[in-house]
Amino acid sequence: MATQRGRNGKGIGKGIGKGIGKANPAEDEAVYQAILHALLEGKLKAGVKLAEPPLADIFGVSRERIRKVLHRLGAERRLEMIPNRGARVPRPTLDDVRRVYEAHRVLEAGVLTQLVRHVDDALIEKLTAHLAEERAAATRGDRAASVRLSGAFHVHLVEALGNAELTRFLADLLSRSSVMVSVYEPATDSICAVDEHGAIVEALRARDVARAIAVSREHFLHVESRLHLDDDPAPVSEDLTSVFATVKPKRRKR
Amino acid sequence: MATQRGRNGKGIGKGIGKGIGKANPAEDEAVYQAILHALLEGKLKAGVKLAEPPLADIFGVSRERIRKVLHRLGAERRLEMIPNRGARVPRPTLDDVRRVYEAHRVLEAGVLTQLVRHVDDALIEKLTAHLAEERAAATRGDRAASVRLSGAFHVHLVEALGNAELTRFLADLLSRSSVMVSVYEPATDSICAVDEHGAIVEALRARDVARAIAVSREHFLHVESRLHLDDDPAPVSEDLTSVFATVKPKRRKR
DNA sequence: CGCGCGAAAAATGTGCACATTTTTTGGAGG
DNA sequence: CCTCCAAAAAATGTGCACATTTTTCGCGCG
Q1: How open is the CA angle B108-A152-A123, to the nearest 5 degrees?
Q2: Is A60 left (phi over 0), alpha (psi -120 to 50) or beta?
């Protein structure tokens, strides 16, 4: 009912419309990125239903296109797919959040253990520079940058190992926790205190594994302790149009 | 319900019987499991092309069904999907394999660090019992069981933490390495020496983190050292029918 | 014998027309 | 006012007919 497109019969006058059965992989990717971005940005609140027809209308693509993207996001566990009932933004429990933080904590312990074997001046320098960035963002009160840089610190640590599998796993955890903060937002100033990050770098510089792990562990426990259950079920604005207001649809219904 | 029935407008009514457009989620799952199983079992060799038409024929389902499963396996990075060129069993390089083993090693270091805090008699007992199983399999020369139990040991370790995220990540790594052994198979007797597993349990019992990690690390390095590049490109039998010989198709072409 | 190079064949990608749910709606009855 | 229930409406699931590649094949030329 939405983007009804003249699909000319068999062979008659097919010449005109450039794209009839055209393959456009970039379009899939654009829709995927748009939804994923809205998800990571926290614009799509937990529990929101993502129905196919409205999304197809918003993005100006066929429903099958949307369907494929939705299922892909479901396979990545970024959306909750229920048979015959569509896709929803997952509503993580407090235990889910704790589990993600714990996984990050355990992973980082392993990363630090391995990292002290390969730490060199260049790495320390890079991390120190990053700390300076974090401090700058904190002092100027740039909360968005603080949150971003705070996550980036841990990414730098795992990236220093140069192992794509580990990097991917961490990215997965971070992206999941970023969605969660929209539900259980700490609401305090900086998520990760810069000082705690600095202590990790210090321990690394000293090649002190035990201290690095201890500091990292305390750091995570500190963050976890700040989580609080916002027991407000929230009305969740079901208005998808406003969420994807930035997208430029090729054609909208109206 | 079934207000309308006549569906075969032009298509020759070949599929008369019962379900025409029925929803059967179990069927998707069956196909998915069958292909995944063949993949993990090593029956599907690296580099093999998984074309849709033959698979649809083998499993007796529509091509769309196959297509969906293939894309799902691609999203899970178990198959390599190339636009317009279909799905192939990935052909991991030696570096890929090393990366997976390293990731497992790093992860286990973190797991052990966390585990010594929660280790109790029940866990030690469970692991000891597992070691007995491994020894039994080794002494009676049951290679298949040895390989399986060897992987299970590490699963037990991470499961002891009770963190689904970590368990999933390990399962992911293990499943990937299991595919890889078909290319770079150690070909020696037991993949993981039981003694090395026993040493890990011993260190856990003593609550000695450093030793546990050191032993685990040596263990993995030992396994990694056995990897060898089988530079034989292998003719890879492209015969999918024999691979899925066990499946009972509802209808086969010829 | 190898090497293009076009045409045929096969395989992948996509919109659409339905079937099959699920959800909403609108009363009748308590 | 609330509950229950059947019918309508909406949303999801699936096969199919193509369009669009990609791959294979055949054949003439150097």
Answers
A1: 75
A2: left
> Quick one: pLDDT band at residue A224, thresholds 50, 70, 90?
confident
Specify which residue's alpha carbon is closest to the C1' of nucleotide C20: B22
pLDDT over 50 at A43, yes or no: yes
Give residue B244's identity as a one-letter amino acid code.
F
Give the per-residue SS3 of chain B: CCCCCCCCCCCCCCCCCCCCCCCCHHHHHHHHHHHHHHHHHCCCCCCCEECHHHHHHHHCCCHHHHHHHHHHHHHCCCCEEECCCEEECCCCCHHHHHHHHHHHHHHHHHHHHHHCCCCCHHHHHHHHHHHHHHHHHHHCCCHHHHHHHHHHHHHHHHHCCCCHHHHHHHHHHHHHHHHHCCCCCCCCCCCCCHHHHHHHHHHHHCCCHHHHHHHHHHHHHHHHHHCCCCCCCCCCCCCHHHHCCCCCCCCCCC
A52 touches strand D (CB under 7 A): yes
Q: Nearest 5°: CA angle at B179, between B177 and B183?
A: 100
Note whether B26 contacts A: Cβ–Cβ < 8 A.
no
With CB atoms and an 8 Å threshold, state whether B103 touches A71: no
pLDDT digits (tens, 9 = 90+) for B230-249: 555 555 656 778 888 766 55
- Identify the structural domains of chain A with CATH numbers, from first to last: 25-91 (1.10.10.10), 94-226 (1.20.120.530)
Q: What is the rounded CA–CA span in Å between residue B59 and residue B31?
A: 7
Q: Which nucleotides of C are covered by protein (CB under 7 A)?
A: 10-23
Residues of A in contact with B72 (CB under 8 A): 71, 75
Find the residue in B nearest to A169 (Cα): B169
Residue A146 has what pLDDT? Answer: 84
Encoded amino acid at B36, one letter: L
pLDDT of residue A228: 72
Strand D footprint nucleotides (protein C-beta < 7 Å) = 10-23
B134 touches chain A (CB under 8 A): no
Give every CB contact of residue A12 below 8 A, 6+ residues apart in sequence: none
Name the residue type at position B87: A
φ/ψ of A37, rounded to 5, equals: -65, -45
B41: closest CA among B188, B120, B147, B142? B147
CA distance B240 to B50: 8
- The distance (Å) linking the CA of B58 with the C1' of D9 is 39
Q: What would the two tokens of residue A42 be?
A: 């926290």
Looking at beta carbons, which residues of chain B come within 8 Å of A65? none
Q: State the best of A36, A98, A169, A208 to mutate against chain B, taking most chain B CBs within 10 Å.
A: A169
